[in-house]
Amino acid sequence: MKIFLRNVLADTHPNDLVSFFTPFLSRSITNLFGAKGEIMNEYIVAQKDSKGNVVSHHGLVKIEPDETAERILKRVHRTLFRDKYIIIREFKNRSDQ
Q: What is the rounded CA–CA span in Å between residue 65 and residue 63?
């Protein structure tokens, strides 16, 4: 499952995404039998307006298996990421909708 992080800071690097999500990937006391997750890839995307000016930055992280990604989404939505509260949700391709 791909996870979307909306409006991350402009100087965010893919390694920041890995550092943020890694603690949530392992099994925990509340999830002893759940699957341990793995980050498959991570990106920072700069969104531009029609004139080519960068207007926002977003993060994308693919986490497998989906069960782990769903558990992470429940735990990290509206949490601090690099000293900023951000919205985190499942990423949906527009072509899939």
A: 6
Integer Cα distance of 3 and 29 in angstroms: 24
Per-residue pLDDT tens over the stretch 57-87: 999 999 999 988 998 998 887 789 999 898 9
Q: Round to whole Å and give the CA distance between 62 and 3.
A: 6
Torsion angle defined by CA atoms of residues 86, 61, 69 and 38, in that order, rounded to the nearest 10 degrees: -140
| CA-wise closest residue to 35 among 72, 68, 61, 73 | 68
Q: Which of 95, 43, 88 is nearest to 70 (CA)?
A: 88
Token pair for residue 65? Answer: 């298996």
CA atoms of 55 and 60, how far apart (whole Å): 17
Provide the 10 A C-beta neighbour count for residue 54.
10
Per-residue pLDDT band at 28 (split at 50, 70, 90): low
